UniProtKB/TrEMBL annotation:
Any single Gene Ontology cellular-component annotation: cytosol
Annotated region (Disordered), positions in chain: 160-231
Coiled-coil features, chain-numbered ranges: none
Family: Belongs to the dihydrofolate reductase family.
Organism phylogeny: Bacteria, Bacillati, Actinomycetota, Actinomycetes, Micrococcales
Name of the featured protein: dihydrofolate reductase
Pfam families for the chain: DHFR_1
Domain DHFR: 9-179
Amino acid sequence: MSGGSATTEIGMIWAQTHTGVIGDAGAMPWHLPEDLAHFKTTTRGAPVVMGRRTWESFPEKYRPLPGRQNIVITTDAHAAEQIHERGGHPVASLDEGLELASGFATERIWVIGGGQVYSETVTRGIADLAVITVIQSPASGDTSAPALTADWELTRRDPAVGTHQGANGLQYHIETHRRKPEMTETSRATEAQPAAPNTAQAAPKSAPQAMPQSASQATPQGASQSPDQASQATSTNLMMLGLGGYLILPFLALFTVTLGFVLVLNDRILPGLAFLFVAQLWVAGGLWAHLKRRRLLQEIKEARGSTESPETPGARG
Ligand SMILES: NC(=O)c1ccc[n+]([C@@H]2O[C@H](COP(=O)([O-])OP(=O)(O)OC[C@H]3O[C@@H](n4cnc5c(N)ncnc54)[C@H](OP(=O)(O)O)[C@@H]3O)[C@@H](O)[C@H]2O)c1
């Protein structure tokens, strides 16, 4: 980075639809509280650098975002004055913003948008890390995520396969991308002096937790699984669905249907019909397990494909 300490890492964090939309008409065209919580947790305590339009996209009560030094890039003197009055730090360029951020003696600086600022950050090879929440949403918009190029690699996906489901039903997952070490400015600057591993703020290779974007981010926190835990959970799910769908439920259905017929043939019509009805439920359950298992297998296949070609995160979809 420009002027930062040798151990300061610069990360970008954003949320996007699976087609790469990050904003529309000055806001994010979805509502995903889990992502806001993730953003808050991830960036808390670190300086955040943003463009003036992103600052203005925050609800007033989140200007500045609490618990973080808010550095806002603007060339507009009036806007700069207002930012300053509210407790933010106006700066005239991205370089100036990063310089100021590095002065806050932190291990990590977060670039939090929007489109124009992400684009400059990526184009100039300034950041080492990108934490991206990918939301399965059909929303369209006027601002897009930057395209990460081949010098970036996917280092983590949460969950490893499939998606999380937000409380409001939106499906999403979180990707962590890193620039390959030889490509990063930070690594060049620290070549002779390797950075010590971070703990609280820097959650490197195996463990960043991503997060979302914008302003109102203020909420709880979703526990995320490690890739290993996620794979284990997936294997267990597959096994349970197979056991239930192909063995237990068919057996129960057969047993119940037989019992139902026996009762009906012995003139115990009502109990017999009840058993036959229950048998249908077992059959429906078996069918559901089969379909669910098939979908899970498909997701695993897709996830393998995306992990093998990690260089196009922002544009994925
Ligand atoms: N999904 C997400 O995670 C996420 C995150 C952040 C933002 N967003 C969305 O993104 C949209 C805003 O993005 P945007 O691209 O329109 O605007 P932006 O990048 O937030 O801000 C652009 C403004 O910042 C200033 N600026 C940026 N780079 C500069 C530079 N190098 N030198 C001087 N000034 C510079 C300029 O302000 P002046 O015009 O004042 O000079 C410019 O107009 C909103 O819809 C927002 O909701 C989404």
